[in-house]
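Reopening: FAD-linked oxidase still failing for me.
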Amino acid sequence: MVEKQQLAALISELSDLSLITDPGRLERFSRDFAWFSPILTEQLADKRADLVVRPNDETEIKRVIAACHRHRVPLTLRGSGTGNYGQCTPLEGGVVMDMSALNQVRWIEGGVARVQAGTRLVNIDKEARPKGWEMRLLPSTYRLATAGGFYCGGFGGVGSITYGSIGDPGNVLGVRALSLEAEPRELELRGREALDLYHAYGVNGIITEIEFALAPAYDWQEALLTFPDFMEAVRFCQTLGRASGVIKKLLTVLADPLPQMCGLEEQVPAGRTAVLCIVAKPSFDATRELCEQYGGAIALTQEHADVYGTAHSLIEHAWNHTTLHIFKRDKGITYLQSGFRPWENVEKVEQMYRHFGDEVMMHLEFLRADGALTCSGLQVVRYTDEQRLNAIIQFHRDHGVHIANPHVYTLEEGGKLEVDPRQLAMKRRLDPAGLLNPGKMRSWEEEAVA
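Support: Ran it again with your exact input. Result attached.
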């Protein structure tokens, strides 16, 4: 933990920057949406920054970096705090550096956007559209989420049905990063090297700029569909997802009673499953015909352009926003993050659905993984205790369903359940003193002990 004299020296050195020392604001800047998990809520309750710094440009960032290195004070990065795993919670105190003032779109050219790390995703999208482009991928938190936060802590979202995850090759072309050293080095990392900083929670390098590959902008149609049978809704999504001629942006399944729990009760009668979809307008007729073939009906249609960036878009009930809306009404729930293998996703979804019933309610997001259509689950769980939650997780794993556990805060346990040697090597390269949020990367701590 940070000693008083260390903190005093740091504050004195950075006194002309925007600093926050008020205890209430320190608490707020040390939190993200980890409260989705009752386990993380308890584990992270006493973790708080000693100081928040809000740099205005890269020169000020370098000053913060150099000072933290000189005084051996931990440094944790923060965007808008829309992550779910305590990414911006400093496990050993120290400085939280809020990157949100670095919010400029540097340029948009030829289907590529170069932006600063604190740029809100919705603003990138809005600047790209007049040029005929749009973001390939957006989380449901796109109105607040920043480019750096999405890359370092996100996975997919709206657009994943076509473009997969943010970490798939070709979606992010490069990053500009700084090392945490006495004299911070500037690195331009392209292609595969840039991916070594992807989904690393900001613990192995300080990203200041990102280059996103964009997608052609379409006129989109939003549609809310309802089905009397959950598995027919799943099969409809599987068929629509595989339809190469249908241009898609979102394909979400909410099993009964989730539509009524998340604010869609006026459009979706009790007992019916909801499918949220966004397709290009020329693809809507084919979507409607497939819906009817699987016994579905259209409950709502709306122009995506009319509701984009507002609470009326169906995006507000997809991805992690589903859980958010339900949690506002029912504090007795939590969630899982699961991955179904493409060659058996429909069968495994049905197996889990039949086995758990109303205890683990099915929320599915259809997407592409390594080019193949599949779905990920953001299942809503009626929470009883940690032991039962772990048993639910283990049952999924025992039956071939991957769980990226959202109830742990270390990098490895929450993701692939294994050490990524390239991410570890990047931390050695850009954070040799191990000052970027110590405790977050288990493999680094184990290597230090060894």
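The chain has three domains: 4-98, 105-216, 220-403. If you still see a failure, please send the error message rather than a screenshot.
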